[in-house]
Amino acid sequence: MAAGNTLTPTAYIQHHLQNLTFGYHPDHGWAMAHSAEEAAEMGFWAIHLDTMAWSIGLGVLFLWLFRKAARAATTGVPHGLQNFVEMMVEFVDNSVKETFHGKSRLIAPLSLTIFCWIFLMNLMDLVPVDLLPMLAQKIGIMFGADPAHVYFKVVPTTDVNATLGMSLSVFALIIIYSIRHKGLSGFIGELTLHPFSSSNKLFQVILIPINFILEVVTLLAKPVSLALRLFGNMYAGELIFILIAMIGLWQLPLHFSWAVFHILIVTLQAFIFMMLTIVYLSMATEEH
Predict the structure, then answer these.
(1) Any idea which residues carry the catalytic annotation?
(2) pTM of this prediction?
(3) Is 31 helix (H, G, I), strand (E, B) or coil?
(4) 144/134 Cα distance (integer angstroms)
């Protein structure tokens, strides 16, 4: 869908920011949403097919590349893909050793997966914004779809559902690690006996509701901050690419300039998500 189409600038932006949604509509049954309003009417259980397809596909690509490098690994001087994979593994391993103070065989593989997977998803933001949506429209026309109703977002991390899903997975691990290392009573104690404490038992009981509210807010802020930080930065970057695509003749140099700068954002956001995950899991294993 090129910027030169009959769509108004507002409609052009809205079209690019709408996901390909499948769900149950109260009037039309199970179907694809033809507008943002229909997608909203499908409710919570509607699925963003483009987000699911790209996130799963890029996850499979990550696994395939690293498995290929592992199978081709030699004891000599590494070259090409093997050199890149070894560099990434060493980088993540050093980050985990410097940040995670407990003992776990899961943290390093988890951190590597998070960094590489999010990096690949973020990297899709560098693909010209009209290229893949136009291809999706052509495919949709082949199946009799109205091109105006074919939506296709290619950056999974610009979908808050994807970033929140990943952060909730990390949140579940935080709870599991806290209970595993401190016991259920220790975990509950952290939520009710901190940050305020007193040697007077009666006063300590009075403080429990206050402590609980403060600690629960702090605990819930972790997944929310993880999700919204990644989503907000990538959504803003995608929106700037869309605005650049609308200005026509000058879009190529501007697109290139912003893409060069955006490479830093793409990498940094993957790194921040990984590091915060390590920090939160490290905190979950420490006694307070």
Answers:
(1) 225, 229, 233
(2) 0.90
(3) strand
(4) 15
